[in-house]
Specification:
Chains A, B: Keywords: NAD, Oxidoreductase. Chains A, B: It comes from Bradyrhizobium agreste. The structure is a homodimer of 307-residue chains. The first copy, chain A, folds into 2 domains: 170 residues, NAD(P)-binding Rossmann-like Domain (Rossmann fold); 121 residues, Orthogonal Bundle (N-(1-d-carboxylethyl)-l-norvaline Dehydrogenase, domain 2), CATH 1.10.1040. The first copy, chain A, is built from 14 helices and 9 strands. A 6-stranded parallel sheet of chain A has the order 3-2-1-4-5-6, with helices on both faces. In chain A, helix 9 packs across helix 11. The longest helix of chain A has 29 residues. The interface between A and B is large, with 68 and 68 residues.
């Protein structure tokens, strides 16, 4: 019996780099759908859970890539992705014609560059960021925004379907997936700042912010962000689920994309200023729902601070 | 038997002014809950349907107010409300201590003035605008944002409950209800312009706007407005459900409220400019989803128009 001589019938091997809070769940879902997953993470502590879920631990990035038809990256940022692919030698270790699937959130311009380098080495590339968080990863309910040519999309679709239930083919060119994720953040950031603007305006007229959040969660004024962050927005010192500075960064990526495409994004620009104002108060690490503090600060009674 | 001598056991009489597409449904729900409703509309055509629903037709505004414990106004705008209450003599015709319930959408500052005039004549006043449209009116599923003192709120709550299933007591002072409705429109306008900004940015990178709307309707980027208007936004010449100029006006009311309260609303300000841009293209009467045209116009290829 020669396992490697029957690729058509054998399950496909997937190298999986980045077994963090989301990646470990995504890898588990691949294993349970019958894919052979060879995983690696710089944190050795990820190994036990991964092997219990049916994966095979690799000793290095190169080891995970060797003999894998697909290499899936769920690393923290674009710097780690470049490290894995090029400096650590994953692309060179992949068989010719294998496919790199980049699922980490990265700026579109840098994804384009990575894709060009991967293609120059004779491997396929799929730009496929996700949204849905740990809960979506655990339930195989991620939204996946894939950009690649049609043939490659057909090839990777069974893999993506194992991790997400809303798999979109958003375009043919690498970078388009990353841009859709960027635009997702444009809307999230504007919606969250707008909720702060709404609550602060009402508060100035003596209306209880909790009543406003309650009403707007159920009316035509609702947004996913308002419903998700509303309770924290009207709390005094809420637990941090995502920091103010993350939106300063994400909206910066939006503005960079707009600059590159020569497409003005005035609402995103204003929203970023509001998050930046809170960061400028020295509060960049508090919960992003506290963008409302930028509005409150603008109208705070200045009498107390006058000499 | 003297009907009028047993007010405690007799059903309360409500004068209802404005039996249009929403008012007629609201009045029907009051009748079916056992209230005696005496209705009036300047369009005599409303009479047949109203009487079939169990109402009593009044011959004038004054007639509707006479012997009514409550006078409910569901007219088109604040000008009509003032006409009904003061020029047409409804307040004077109401019994002493009766309650005026203003449910039309009006600017907060003008509602405050009306409330003061009504109080000066010894009648109670409730500022209670609604959201939910004709569908909400028909199903008694309106959101109602009532501002008045606690005692008056207890008095009118059974009436409001007959028309809406989300009845909020938003504050003690007339004008606060109107302001909540105004802030609702702040969020709607910003969310709709943001959806246009998102779709236009994606389109500049060659991403199909229909795919973007599909993704963002299901992701953390979703808003009620994006889901409601998304399909129309990516259509070429959609049916008008609400015109661009309505948002120019509504966001103008938001900015006026901010000026009066000295509370900056930068996102609403930018959003208004985008609707105004489409109005400036001569398209103020097209569907409000077409705010995306302001973004498209900013990045349209200018080559064709050069000499």
């Amino acid at each position: 019996m020669q396992q490697q001589s029957s690729p058509a019938s054998a399950p496909k091997q997937i190298g999986f780099i980045g077994l963090g809070s989301m990646g470990s769940q995504m890898a588990r879902n691949l294993c349970s759908r019958g894919f052979r997953v060879k995983g690696f993470d710089v944190r050795a502590g990820a190994r036990v859970a991964f092997e219990e879920n049916g994966g095979t631990w690799a000793e290095s990035v190169r080891d995970a890539a060797t003999r894998s038809e697909f290499l899936l990256l769920m690393v923290v940022n674009v710097g780690q992705a470049e490290q894995v692919l090029f400096q650590s030698g994953a692309v060179d270790a992949l068989p010719a014609g294998a496919t790199v699937i980049l699922m980490a959130t990265c700026p579109a311009a840098e994804v384009e560059q990575i894709a060009a380098q991967v293609a120059a080495k004779g491997r396929r590339f799929v730009d496929a960021p996700v949204s849905g968080g740990v809960a979506g990863a655990a339930s195989a309910g991620l939204t996946i925004m894939a950009a690649c040519n049609d043939e490659t999309f057909e090839l990777v679709k069974p893999i993506l379907d194992a991790m997400g239930d809303k798999v979109f083919h958003v375009g043919e060119r690498a970078g388009q997936g990353a841009l859709v994720k960027t635009i997702n953040q444009l809307l999230c950031g504007v919606h969250l700042a707008a909720a702060g603007e709404a609550v602060a305006l009402g508060a100035k007229a003596g209306i209880d912010p909790r009543i406003l959040i309650d009403i707007f969660s159920q009316s035509s004024a609702s947004s996913w962000m308002l419903r998700d962050r509303g309770a924290r927005m009207v709390a005094n010192d809420p637990k941090v689920t995502s920091a103010i500075d993350i939106f300063v960064k994400d909206l910066g990526i939006v503005l960079d994309a707009g600059l590159r495409l020569k497409a003005p994004t005035p609402l995103a620009s204003v929203a970023q200023q509001m998050f930046l104002a809170v960061s400028g108060q020295g509060a960049g690490q508090i919960d992003d729902s506290q963008v409302v503090r930028a509005y409150r600060a603008m109208t705070a009674d200045a009498g107390a601070s006058q000499p």
